[in-house]
Design brief:
Blueprint (H helix, E strand, L loop, with lengths): L1 H18 L3 E6 L3 E3 L3 E10 L4 E3 L6 E3 L2 E13 L5 E11 L3 E5 L3 E5 L4 E5 L3 E6 L22 H29 L14 H15 L7 H20 L8 H10 L5 H19 L6 H59 L1
Parallel strand pairs: 2-11
Antiparallel strand pairs: 1-3, 3-7, 4-9, 5-6, 6-7, 8-11, 9-10
Helix pairs in contact: 3-4, 3-7, 4-6, 4-7, 5-6, 6-7
């Protein structure tokens, strides 16, 4: 029996000594607050490291009338004496006036050597409303100062404005297209070769027989325009923007047009200028002859250009083939040399 009593006495002494190594308590930010204000309720334990601390488990309220807004949040901080400060915080508030007392709470300390249950002291605080001095009366409500917007705050509005502008422009574009009965996407026009365009124009002029109807000026204007357009598209001569003299000079400098062809076109341009500016009226046979000469000029030059193009392509193909043969021979020689070196 004496041994049991001695054992109990020693355990109580050890527990008392261990409890003295702890500092604990509960704190409030303030003992006075207004309705709706918030403050922290903090449980603290200062002890040696390596122990388990179980703080009070609070739910929605601490006591009746004191509500928990946020928490718990827990942290630990080492101190200079080798101990650690453990804290658990709650954000609390009250919406009724009065005096509130937070009763003692239990904090459990667990380790391999002992278990202790610590009891905090009660803490209280008062909650009051705003006091109005009847001598001074009520103050005007002052609105908060307007702070300038940051770029991140204005960015969503900027993007919405840009999107609105894009939508308005798209609607306007579609409406214009619909009003003009045009398709939304215009198909790309087929590029017609200058030779084909010239032949189509000459065939139309021949079919209409304008010189026989007394419309010589219109006839020679369309005939020379056909020649000028053909020169521009096939030879790169800007004849549509040049005078007859400038066009003839450009034709003489072009190595793809011979002197006989230049002479035929020179006669046509000279006669056309007389008809358009001097009211000259050529004979019908002469007008028909000019049409035949333009047919001949277009066909002859086109065939010659096609032959030159085929000859150029043939020459390029032969040169390409020779390069391929030379490259293959070079590769074969390099391969033979490598085999010789390996042997």
């Amino acid at each position: 029996m004496k041994q049991i009593l001695l054992y109990i006495f020693l355990m109580v002494c050890i527990g008392t000594l261990n409890a003295q190594d702890f500092e604990y308590g509960v704190e409030l930010d303030t003992n006075y607050m207004l309705i709706g204000d918030q403050q922290h309720l903090t449980f603290k334990v200062r002890s040696a490291p390596g122990i388990k601390i179980v703080f009070p488990q609070l739910k929605d309220t601490v006591v009746q009338g004191v509500e928990i807004i946020l928490g718990p949040s827990r942290d630990s901080v080492p101190e200079n004496d080798g101990r650690w400060l453990y804290r658990e915080k709650y954000v609390i508030t009250a919406f009724d006036t009065g005096m509130y007392v937070i009763p003692p709470m239990l904090i459990t300390i667990e380790s391999d050597e002992f278990n202790n249950v610590l009891r905090t002291d009660p803490v209280g605080f008062a909650v009051n409303t705003y006091e109005v001095d009847p001598q001074k009366g009520n103050y005007d409500i002052v609105l908060p100062y307007a702070t300038p917007w940051t770029f991140s705050e204005a960015l969503p509005y900027i993007l919405w404005c840009l999107l609105g502008i894009v939508i308005v422009v798209a609607v306007w574009f579609l409406w214009r297209r619909y009003k003009k009965h045009k398709p939304l996407f215009t198909p790309q026009k087929e590029i017609i070769p200058p030779y084909v365009l010239a032949m189509q124009s000459l065939d139309e002029i021949k079919r209409e027989k304008l010189w026989q109807a007394g419309r010589e000026k219109e006839y020679y204007t369309r005939l020379t325009d056909t020649v000028r357009a053909y020169l521009d598209g096939e030879f790169g001569i800007s004849a549509m923007e040049q005078t007859s003299t400038e066009t003839l000079k450009a034709m003489q400098e072009c190595d793809k047009i011979n002197s006989g062809e230049c002479s035929k076109i020179a006669d046509l341009l000279t006669t056309a200028d007389y008809v358009k500016f001097a009211k000259f009226t050529p004979l019908q046979d002469e007008s028909a002859r000019y049409l035949d000469s333009v047919y001949d000029f277009v066909n002859t030059t086109h065939l010659r250009l096609q032959a030159e193009k085929v000859e150029q392509e043939k020459k390029e193909a032969e040169e390409r083939k020779l390069r391929e043969i030379e490259e293959k021979q070079t590769t074969d020689v390099a391969g033979v040399n490598n085999n010789s070196e390996m042997k």
